[in-house]
Structure formats: structure tokens, C-alpha cells
Design a protein that fits this description.
75% of the residues lie in helices and 0% in strands. By secondary structure, it is an all-alpha fold. Bound molecules: flavin-adenine dinucleotide.
């Protein structure tokens, strides 16, 4: 299958989605770790990762056609798993709504800042308890 040019096109697109989604996730996670305001980066990482996994799982289903439907196939499981991460922490509709607020300057939250502050103070407490 991987010798067919139409399939190669889909595999190339899946690889690109994977690399882009990883970058978005690691970028947001690093910002959060370093205590920066990064609500927008987190919204965008959730949106990019969920949509990419849905698109790539669907591509994988179509590439493997009837074989992907078998209950023994991991492919149909990937598609169900991708749907499973759509709703938790806000659907893609909700991520896009928040990102529109960021773009138009009406976003008022600062969840990441509060979370980073809590993490920093609990880290400082742990270091004190550990004598570090
Ligand atoms: C496996 C799993 C784990 C979860 N874990 C947690 C957890 O640990 N903590 C927690 O707090 N919650 C958790 N949730 C709940 C999750 O956050 C909610 O499912 C999610 O916020 C969506 O809410 P809902 O399912 O009630 O859908 P609804 O909010 O009823 O949405 C239904 C539809 O309407 C759309 N919609 C909703 N609001 C708007 C809006 N304002 N504008 C436009 N469209 C809108 C949605 O995109 C969706 O298409 C979990 C859910 C799942 C499935």
C-alpha cells in the first residue's frame, strides 16, 4: 500500500500533522513549566492535537479500508480513542471560541498564570521540606 502515490500523500500529511501537533504541545508545556501566561498556546495545542488525531485516524481507516473495520485491528481503536479526547477540557468549538477571544482582545482568563503560581509555590514548599 505504501508504494501507491495517493497513499504516500496521506502518510506524508499524517507525518506533518504529527510533527506540528507535537511542537504545539511541547511549546505550551514548556511555557507552562517556565511560569509564562500560555492559555492561548494551551487552547491551540489542544485544538491542533485533537483535530490532527481525528484526521489522521480517519486517514488510517481509509488507507486500510475494509481491514481497518475488523475488531482485531488497532486502527478502529485509534479512531475511537481520537474521539474520546475531543470533549474533555473543552471541545474544539470551545477552543476556537477562546482563541477568537484571544485574537480580538476580549479574552479575560489567566488560568495558566494561576496554575504556574500554584506549581511554583508547591515546588518551593517541596524543596523546603526536602531541605533543597
Ligand atoms: C473521558 C472524559 C473525561 C473528562 N474529564 C473531565 C475532568 O477531569 N474534569 C472536568 O471538569 N470535566 C471532564 N470531562 C467533561 C468535559 O470537560 C466535558 O465533556 C466538556 O467540557 C464538554 O461538555 P459536554 O460534554 O457537556 O458537552 P456540551 O457542553 O453540552 O457541548 C455539546 C456541543 O455543543 C457545543 N458547545 C458547547 N458550548 C458551546 C458554546 N458556548 N459555543 C459553541 N458551541 C458550544 C460543543 O462544542 C458540542 O459540540 C470529561 C469528559 C470526558 C468524555
Amino acid at each position: 500500500l505504501s508504494e501507491l502515490s495517493t497513499i504516500k500523500q496521506r502518510i506524508g500529511q499524517m507525518q506533518s500533522r504529527l510533527m506540528t501537533a507535537r511542537l504545539a504541545a511541547y511549546h505550551a508545556a514548556h511555557m507552562l513549566d517556565d511560569g509564562f501566561d500560555c492559555d492561548a498556546e494551551l487552547f491551540s495545542a489542544k485544538l491542533t492535537n485533537v483535530e490532527s488525531s481525528l484526521d489522521s485516524a480517519r486517514d488510517a481507516m481509509e488507507i486500510h479500508a475494509a481491514h481497518a473495520l475488523s475488531a482485531d485491528s488497532p486502527i478502529q481503536r485509534f479512531l475511537r480513542d481520537a474521539h474520546h479526547i475531543y470533549a474533555p477540557a473543552g471541545t474544539s468549538d470551545v477552543q476556537r471560541l477562546r482563541l477568537a477571544e484571544v485574537a480580538t482582545g476580549s479574552y479575560k482568563g489567566s488560568w495558566s498564570r494561576r496554575f504556574a503560581d500554584e506549581l511554583r509555590s508547591s515546588g518551593a514548599m517541596l524543596r523546603r521540606v526536602g531541605g533543597g
